[in-house]
């Protein structure tokens, strides 16, 4: 949006973006924020289910920062708790605060696997420490992860997320600069493949320190786990003395207060958490069996080093406590689950009316539409059939209708407590229009850059 007589080059967003690129590499502070076709997006305000850009455009937000604001942007109760914490507490970097104790007690009460817990600043840090302590506990080298699962930026797991077809089945790092011997210590298996799990443990069980898994791989949209697959992970890790890690950074609190483990009944040894735990404030956590958690150096003399200047910052602890209190007190999950069902049903109807091959799937407040034939995908190989041009193309055109879903391949979308039935219906109707426009216009440009989580050469 520009004023009369102005040009795109004069628009506030364009000017801010130009300034950003001059001093910030690529103009953004995370690689997943540099989106082809949206390189001049500058966000100035967010509230409830919406955000606004520097040119004054308003968007109903279903991207939701990859999922943290389950309550909606700038939830007033969370904001008030953070402000109150700032009036009487600050980061002192020694000892413990009452808030940290209360948050740890709350997490131990809510999440089945958690006997003891430590706070981090990000989910990536939590998964890093989970693998470190698993190796410390077992004295073993190997880690097992699954194609399509993302566990953060650290070297042991920075591979095989969104991979091209010719990179599936081999090592597909998402970054250069990783030592080959680190990549070699990570075994990548197909998700939902019990046979592959059992075969791998038969061959390498004595040297496997940990299995780490997103119980629902949401970094590729939504692959729902089969119960026998999760049970096989529990059985094999127990049998061979390895550590089972559930990465519930996404699934935790968004799908249930006890995470996916409370839904599946499969209890891991360690759980990593983040995102929805504090409605967007930067906090993560690692919790689990007391004997494993006691190996961290927060207990004097323990062998696995653990530190972080901002761990347990009073502001983020207050945000987490306020978020969890509201999740327990109000019908948040009932609301977002109902809207998720409404959206999935509406989208499926639209695609059927337009004759577009599609699979609309998700869980609770998470939804995603894959453009392909066949049933609900069970593994990453199934997602290779997704029509990337349609997936990215219609999402780019949604933006013109004031609705935002991230226009990157396979990315999921989220409902918050601040969304309404009217917002859900607007999404469905905007999707109808955007898909029609995409069908009329054909493929979109720049699709070679629509996936940014694979293909690095080491």
From TrEMBL:
Its cofactor is pyridoxal 5'-phosphate. Gene3D superfamilies: Aspartate Aminotransferase, domain 1 (3.90.1150.10), Type I PLP-dependent aspartate aminotransferase-like (Major domain) (3.40.640.10). One of its GO terms (molecular function) is transaminase activity. InterPro entries: Aminotrans_3, Aminotrans_3_PPA_site, PyrdxlP-dep_Trfase, PyrdxlP-dep_Trfase_major, PyrdxlP-dep_Trfase_small. Keywords: Aminotransferase, Antibiotic biosynthesis, Pyridoxal phosphate, Transferase. Pfam families: Aminotran_3. The keyword Transferase applies. Belongs to the class-III pyridoxal-phosphate-dependent aminotransferase family. NCBIfam families: PRK00062.1 (NF000818). This is Aspartate aminotransferase family protein. It comes from Amycolatopsis samaneae.
């Amino acid at each position: 949006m520009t004023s009369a007589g102005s040009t795109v080059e004069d628009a506030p967003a364009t000017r801010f973006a130009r300034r950003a690129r001059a001093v910030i590499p690529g103009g953004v502070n995370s690689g997943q924020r540099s989106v082809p076709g949206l390189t001049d997006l500058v966000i100035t305000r967010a509230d409830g289910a919406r955000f606004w850009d520097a040119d004054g455009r308003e968007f109903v937000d279903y991207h939701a920062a990859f999922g943290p604001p389950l309550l909606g942007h700038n939830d007033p109760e969370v904001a008030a708790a953070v402000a109150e914490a700032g009036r009487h507490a600050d980061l002192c970097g020694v000892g413990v605060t009452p808030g940290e104790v209360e948050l740890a007690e709350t997490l131990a009460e809510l999440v089945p696997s958690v006997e003891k817990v430590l706070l981090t600043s990000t989910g990536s840090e939590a998964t890093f420490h989970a693998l470190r302590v698993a190796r410390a506990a077992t004295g073993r080298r190997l880690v097992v992860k699954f194609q399509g699962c993302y566990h953060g930026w650290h070297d042991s797991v920075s591979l095989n997320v969104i991979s091209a077809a010719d990179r599936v089945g081999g090592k597909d790092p998402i970054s250069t600069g990783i030592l080959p011997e680190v990549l070699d210590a990570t075994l990548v298996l197909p998700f939902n493949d019990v046979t592959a799990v059992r075969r791998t443990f038969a061959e390498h069980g004595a040297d496997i320190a940990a299995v780490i898994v997103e119980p629902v791989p949401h970094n590729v949209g939504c692959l729902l786990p089969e119960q026998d697959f999760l049970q096989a992970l529990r059985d094999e890790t127990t049998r061979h003395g390895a550590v089972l890690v559930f990465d519930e950074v996404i699934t935790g609190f968004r799908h249930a207060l006890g995470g996916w483990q409370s839904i599946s009944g499969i209890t891991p040894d360690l759980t990593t958490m983040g995102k929805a735990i504090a409605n967007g404030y930067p906090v993560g956590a690692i919790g689990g069996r007391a004997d494993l958690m006691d190996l961290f150096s927060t207990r004097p003399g323990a062998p696995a080093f653990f530190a972080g200047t901002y761990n347990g910052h009073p502001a983020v602890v207050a945000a987490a406590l306020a978020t969890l209190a509201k999740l327990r007190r109000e019908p948040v999950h009932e609301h977002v689950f109902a809207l998720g069902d409404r959206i999935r049903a509406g989208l499926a109807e639209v695609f059927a009316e337009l004759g577009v091959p599609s699979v609309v799937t998700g869980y609770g407040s998470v939804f995603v539409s894959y453009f392909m034939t066949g049933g609900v995908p069970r593994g990453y190989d199934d997602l290779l059939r997704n029509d990337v041009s349609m997936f990215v193309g219609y999402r780019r055109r949604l933006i013109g209708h004031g609705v935002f879903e991230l226009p990157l391949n396979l990315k999921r979308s989220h409902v918050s407590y601040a969304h309404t039935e009217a917002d859900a219906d607007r999404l469905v109707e905007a999707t109808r229009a955007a898909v029609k426009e995409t069908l009329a216009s054909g493929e979109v440009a720049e699709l070679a850059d629509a996936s940014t989580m694979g293909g690095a050469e080491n």
